[in-house]
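Feature request disguised as a bug: please show the residue count (296) next to fructose-bisphosphatase in the output. Example input:
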Amino acid sequence: LPSLTTIRGRCNLFVPVTPTPRPQPARSRRPETRRRSQRRSREERMDHAAEAQRTDLMTITRHALNEQGRHPESRGDFTILLSHIVLGCKFVASAVNKAGLAKLIGLAKLIGLAGETNVQGEEQKKLDVLSNEVFVKALVSSGRTCVLVSEENEAAIFVDAPLRGKYCVCFDPLDGSSNIDYGVSIGTIFGIYMIKDKDNATLEDVLQPGTDMIAAGYCMYGSSCTLVLSTGNGVNGFTLDPSRGEFILTHPNIKIPNKGKIYSVNEGNARNWDAPTAKCTQRDASFPKTAHRQNP
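Example output, currently without the count:
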């Protein structure tokens, strides 16, 4: 029999075996373009964070106060009135956004017909009536209005003496409400006049020329809520920021270009245009001349 030493020598039982190192994958160097992309992403995140913390935003209230400061004799009545109009616009914007889901969330009062017609002979929708009530109550509660003229009311509304102010507001609470079911933009239109004698206001005080209007604007409800306002010193556009609940100045000093490339007109009435209007739109050759109305 072989000795134990011989067996150990043959089997190499006590010879340490050095493990073979595993090959490590080669580390690829990060491309420069990737570093630039990551650096740009960090900068964009920092910009967004800084934008979220901005405190120098020009809100519509701040804008109105700045305009008020230009008139030392002002008592702030117009600013208060404007704040109530803005409140009505916010309320209607919220109602319009919910109109598409009204059937699902149980707000049936927002959709459908109200069963009445307005002064233009148009069928009133429930959202028309709701918007009208919102603006009437907002304007009356401001304590700065004397007469209200709404497209949804046949007669003018004269505010009671305790809440009577010196302004007359003419408005359409929800223009284009027939487009609600189709998601097309709709809006509120308003114009503000001043009453000479608030204690003896009549309809004659309402029938003033447009040159006497002290402010006018509209609020459009669509993919965003935009309020465009003019107080006689330029035209400015404000966009509602849902996170802040404020209208922020986003379109300062709006102007129509001296020369444009498009025009907007209802060509459905083109056959009834007079010759100068048809010629201006270069549609004179599209319709028989006998179809044009003659100038009186």
